[in-house]
Predict the structure.
Amino acid sequence: MVARHAMLIEDEPNIAEAIRFLLRRDGWEVTTLGDGGVAEARVREQRPDLVILDLMLPGRSGIEILEALRATPDTAGLPVMMLTAKGQGRDREAAERAGADLFMAKPFSNAEFVAAARSLIRA
Amino acid sequence: MKRRSPVFLARRSYRLRRIRDAARLLPVAGGFLFLLPVLWAPAASESRDTAPDGIYLFGVWLLLIGAAALLSRPLVKDSEDAPASAEERG
Amino acid sequence: MPFNLLVLACVTYVAFLFLVAFVVERKAARGAARWLRSPVVYTLSLSIYCTAWTFYGAVGYAARSGLEFLTIYLGPTLVFIGWWWILRKLVHIGRQQRVTSIADMISSRYGKSNLLGVIVTVICVFAATPYIALQLQSVTLSFGVFAAAGTYGWAMPDTNSTALWVAAGLTLFTILFGTRNLDANEQHTGVVTAIAVEAVVKLLALLAVGIFVVWFVASGPADIVARIHASSISDWELVPSRWAGFTLLSGAAVITLPRMFQVLVVENSDERHLATASWAFPLYLLAMSLFVVPIAVVGLEVMPTGANPDLFVLTLPLSQGQGALAMLAFLGGFSSATSMVIVASIALATMVSNHVVMPLWLSLRPAQSVSGDVRRLVLLSRRLSIAGVLGLGYLYYSLSGGSSALAAIGLISFVGVAQMLPAMLGGIFWRGATRNGAIWGLGIGFAVWVYALFLPSFGPGAALPIDVFMQGPFGLDWLRPYALFGVQGMDPMIHALFWSLTLNTTAFTLGSLFSFPGPVERVQGLAFVNVFDTERAEPQGWVQGRAEPEALLVMAQRILGDEAALAFFEAQAQAQGKAGYLPDPVPEFLDALERRLASSVGAATAHAMITELAGRARVTVADLMRMAGETAQIMEYSSQLESQREELTRTARQLRDANEKLTQLSVQKDAFLSQISHELRTPMTSIRAFSEIMMEGDMPPEMAANYARIINEEAIRLTRLLDDLLDLGVLENGTVQLNLKLANLSELIERSLRAASHTRPERSFTIQRDLPAEQIFLRTDPDRLCQVLINLISNARKYCDSAQPELRLVVRQRGARVIIDVIDNGTGIPRDKQSLIFEKFARLTDQMRAGGAGLGLAICREIMVNLGGSVSYLPGQGGAAFRVTLPLRLEKSPHERAA
């Protein structure tokens, strides 16, 4: 079985480190990016199975990247998980409007996170 | 933004306007009085008239200074009260 | 009287004037000079109208042509008692437009045309040169009188070297006190007060000689009248053309002479002083002329025939054995000469530097930017101009031989400066007057003056060949200098006056009627002619500019000096309701800035400089018409609706303000909570994730150690955040306990630098400090102040992106406040971010997470508020710059005081 590929766009190095550890242990191949500016191009180039996007990113916000991905047909169906540290209802709405498949508030439980990632692929 | 100035004025403003008129007229009167010797000097050619002429000129001069001093007081107050209000329409 | 004693007296007198000027400048700098700017000082300073020409020359004039000398004082008398007509308007315009000289005024009125400024400057220099020569001559002659009368076998000193010494001494005095600083208003309080003292001296001297003559030589007024009858002066007959002509001429000269314009308009500190001067100055003139005829009559009678009547004021007391009186008279004459030369050279130097040197520099400098300290250039050019003007005067003196009668030279100058009358009066009373008209009028008037009066004054055959006098140039009979257009038999002076002013006025009028003014000209024409009409919304000379405020600030700093420019920008920003130092480049601001600059370098130069920075954002004629249209419309409606609308607007504004405040508070609260949530959740996420991973056990020890380290790091970050938040809360509530004590600022800075050096220790900074200036003892909370300084210095260490990073710490004490500037040489903070950086959680680059939660500057700001001071961003310093201001002695915390 080919390893499932997740692309993680997150600027906090420690959080990225934790997520990478969790997903790798679950059998994922993980690419991490720290800057929002280049994220869209990287996604189009590498075609991951799952995109995990932080809401607040340097360069370009997560919502903007998501909207851009949903705007073109080839990435419109790509599973996207949004992460945010703000955890307010408004952010969740904005993410859902922009087309996020799943919204995860920080901090999260490791098990929940991995299960969510799996569920997005299977769906 | 008051563009229309009233046609008739209270006594005080009326007085002030006439004082301004007087201040404008003063140099005209002074010029006339200073030029007066031009009219009578050549006529009285033989008589020795430098001293009386001098006394006349200094007299007029002093008079004008006194008048200017009297006028300057209300005019300063005027410009303090209303800095240059309704100026050239008086 | 020994000659040495005379020199000693002169030197002592000048030293005394130095002292007066110096003390006054000091007082003025401390703002304690209110009484020095009284109407009396103003009136006395106007007395530079009475130069040595009056002091010595009037008696000579009277001895030659009887009462005609009075015309020179009657003209100014009429102008002053008629102040409501011209002077009031002139002074008002001068103050409103911050005019620096007569050339500036005319150039400013006609569209800020520098060409006009240059023309007027040239005319003034030409006209003033003989006049300055005249002063040198009179001082030299008076020295000569004493030398000749000396009983100590003192040979007549070399007159030329005396004149040279006098010129050099005056240059020194003028440079020292006329160009000490490039004052904002171009006012010289010290010099003006010294001039006022000299005015008293010369009046007292002349009155003393007069009283001596009337009551001690003659036996009272009646005797004098008798003597006048007997004297040859009574043979004088009034020449109507000269009588009327000279009255007009002197009236014109009193407002157009550069030195008179300087004291009358530029140095005026309060328009109300003019009301006093309107009668007091004529009174001064009257007192100066009162004893002229008696002195002349008695002099002619007592002195040997052939004695120079120009020096009777001096020789008469000497011949009567009154050495002390003669000395007083000498000092009077000396005062008249020196005061005129000082003010005239200051006025001319201002013109030369503003209208010749600055424009040249502007067009010749290599880069478009304004670099270097322009103020030093301006001051230097003024100093050189003063030396140049006095040098020209000396040259004229030594070339002309100083032989002609004093009165003639003075009148020649008068006719020269009178050429500016049409352009000036036309400019303030006639909106139709244009630049082209003024150029033509001035040019033709000046040419006629040079040809018909100035050149012939050197004598037939000297400057103009004799044939030209007899047959006219190229045999053109109708162009003879003394008989232009074949008009013969006129007095040469009246002839030149008549033709120059007539042709000047005609050219000015026709030129104005047939040319079309540019937009700036029309704006300025309206501003000058309707200067009292304050109700009219004055159209601005600028449309919304594209100028970068920071570039404007840099330029203003070069011209006005750092402190003055920052203060001006801060005030303007405040007026716009903005914090900080950078107002928006709206037309009002550009206008104000231009005026402020104009007061230093003249309107034309200031205008050119701003135009350069503001690009082509100039008004056009169409803009003007649109603005005028809008104004008219608004006026029509507003007269009816004014009161109700104002009421409504007021209420609406109050409601809006209240609503805005509430909304803002709510938005701020939401944003703050959201930010806190974010800042707390981020470290929590790592902690939770890694702790869960570790709880599962079963991992290599080095990995576990690594994850534990991360957990620990994030926990510390959380603690720091909470500390900062608590600190901020305490500071904002004002419940902070300040620990006030005396501390040496230098030590505090030292401490802060040491503490901050832990931030990015790998970078080595060049630190510039001024240790002597730092020796200030502050009463404040030293730990809190250090906290601010450490924060600012650490920020510089973190964010300064220069390859050779530098940190400058500038400390200044201003009264009871201390200013500390922390300046680095990086790219600084972009303008749109400058207002944000003091907000909580503001971080400019997210890459720099290590620095904390972005609360540092917010805390700094709150600390400074608690210390009774402020911290702000200082734009235009060539890097990021922060200014900390705090009181020298903080007694209680501001909150306690308020409580």
